[in-house]
Amino acid sequence: MKASRNLQLLLLLPVSLVVLFALLFIYGSLSSVKTQYDLASAAQTRDLLVIEDAARFSHDIGQVQRQMATALEGAQAGILTELQLYRMHSVIVDDLDALGRRVRQLADSELVIDANHDSARGLLDEFESYRRFVIMSTDVIAVNPAVAVTFMEQAQRHFREFSIFSSRIVSLLSERSQQRNIAQGSVLSDVYARVLFLGFVALALLLAITYMSAHRASARMLDIADALSTLAHSEGAKIPLPAIEKMHHESKGEFGRIAATLLTFRNEIERRRHAEEEAFQLAFYDPLTQLPNRRLLRERLHHASMMCDRLDSHAAVLILDLDEFKRINDSRGHAFGDKVLTALAKRLKLAVGENNTLAHLGGDSFAILVESLATDAERAAKQVERYTTRILAKVDEPIQLDDEELRITVSTGIALFDKRTEDLDNPLKHAESAMYQAKAAGRQTFRFYDPDMQTRLEARILLENELRLAVERDQLRLFYQIQVDETDVVRGVEALIRWEHPDKGLMPPLTFIPIAEDSGLILQIGRWVLRTACEQLKHWEADPRCRELSIAVNVSARQFRQDDFVAEVLAVLAETGADSRRLKLELTESTVLENIETTIEHMQSLRAAGLRFSMDDFGTGYSSLQYLKRLPLDQIKIDQSFVRDIIIDANDLVIVQTIIAMSHALGLDVIAEGVETREQRDLLFSQGCKAFQGYLFGKPEPLYRVDALLAGTTPTALTSSTRAVAQPSD
Ligand code: C2E
Ligand code: CA
Ligand code: CA
Q1: Ligand 1 first shell, C-beta below 6 A
Q2: Residue 263's CB: how many other CB atoms inside 10 A?
Q3: What confidence tens digit (pLDDT) does each residue in 116-172 have?
């Protein structure tokens, strides 16, 4: 109840003030008008009395005139006795005296003097003269009526003069009254204008006040709404509400109380959160290092396992155990031991990376949970191995403690896991047992839990090291697989790499290209392939049977992405003197999509230099017309997986038909790879495909075999069909 009255007051107070002020002003104006009006009315009344008086004079003097006339007539006719005449004389004298007093009074009145001084004087003088002649006339009337008539005529003359003065006074007074009326009217209209103006001002003020208070109130409401939303959505320990704090200080009414309530509410939430945080900290964090404890690590393991399921990725747990911590503790005391642990925790924290979890399992044991590793277990192991090497290098750096340089080492056990890992205690247990293996192997090292994995990883590391030397040791070979047109004429070859390993023999690219890509060696290898292919092109130029052949070279994403890739290709072409029009680069969809803008740029520059592009393995990736349209391609290569079953799988046939139609629509050539049978070739041909590559025409072969094949010396070595070679067009 009280609250709503206060709210009304807040709005009504300024409004009432304006109204009060307006009323006071109007009252003041009206009462001043009234005073003026009263004064004017009094003057008016006085004027009117004077006018009335003046008017009565004429009437009263007329009376005297008539008596005089009667007296004169009676005297002349001799009907009136002397006594009667004398009586009349005294009546007339009395009347004139009375009139004389009134005239003097009138003429002496300030009013008449005010109106016109000369007229007042004139009026008095004329009346005096009139009276004198009338009295003289009545004096002699009984003795000599003729003289009385003459006197009377004189009196008449003065009476006329008197009348002129009197009517002048009357007209002056009426004029004055008229002016007064006009003045009165103008005062009234003045007041009317003022009141009207004031009305407008008051109205404007009221509107402004109403608007302002409404605006203020709504701004505060918004502040309150904002604060409520902040309270509802904030998650931090502190909830800043500056607008509400300000409102609390500034406002005493409802808003002040609402603000106070909100602030209390906020403080309560903050207090509760703080308490929750403390409890959480105690339950899930190690008090010494402030790192997650084993319990929280388990939670994170669950989460990581879910992510593995969703992304089909691997995760790993690393357990790092300080070497010889017991010795440090025993010789230097626990306090020093704690300092070492804290320093190590700090260092590890900087090294683990944002998406990984570092935990302190207690004692001198730490754990790291590494997420988002590759789908392929071996690749994931390789990734985590590189990661561990990096972490251990950081641990290895000397630590400054109490003016003393300290070197610490850790032994690390690693366990990989993925969505198939059911018991999430296992990765921890496995990492721990691997850690003991590492300790047994001489500390300051790491071990994988899976013994097979450990072996494979070691093999892989060995292979990588060997591959590093393969280029220098001239162990790489380029094989060529021919590509034919619809008349079986050889139009070109695809260059396919082999590694002639000293122990393992001829190794296919899939056993070492992924390692080369991971380690970056692919750049060096790619350069070698390109140079070798260009040298071959140059070499063939001299041979009329081969000079029209093109060579298709596979380019890895990592290679193609290099800023200097274009320059490098052009340099190799220039150095070898090969014809750029005979060089075709094969890109895969994933290479192209990785950074489509740079890809297009590189493709355009190279195409301008005469090179051609083929989209390898088409159909296995996105195969979207959308991006295909944007790429400056020359050819599309139907992936061998579709060709393999084209005869028996209707779906594959439909896909192949679509790819061919799409290519034709974009004006691109089509080639099918992996063609092994005549049937496949014929079906592809019937669908509009006019270029082929596959075992049907020839396997990837070393150069001398291809040369021989092209020379037609050993046709039977490859296939029973007779082979033709493209003839130079010039
Ligand atoms: P790719 O580019 O799709 O090469 C075609 C692969 O299919 C070759 O395997 C070839 O031997 C094989 N092939 C050809 N015709 C037939 C056939 O009729 N039937 C069957 N079943 N297979 C056939 P290869 O030589 O093992 O090469 C594998 C992959 O290695 C290549 O796939 C390519 O992605 C990569 N690669 C090869 N050489 C290089 C290179 O110099 N640089 C790069 N970056 N990658 C290369
Ligand atoms: Ca290829
Ligand atoms: Ca391919």
Answers
A1: 481, 496-497, 508-510, 513, 526, 529, 554, 556, 616-617, 640, 673-676, 694-695, 700
A2: 16
A3: 778 788 888 888 888 888 888 888 887 888 888 888 888 888 888 888 887 777 777
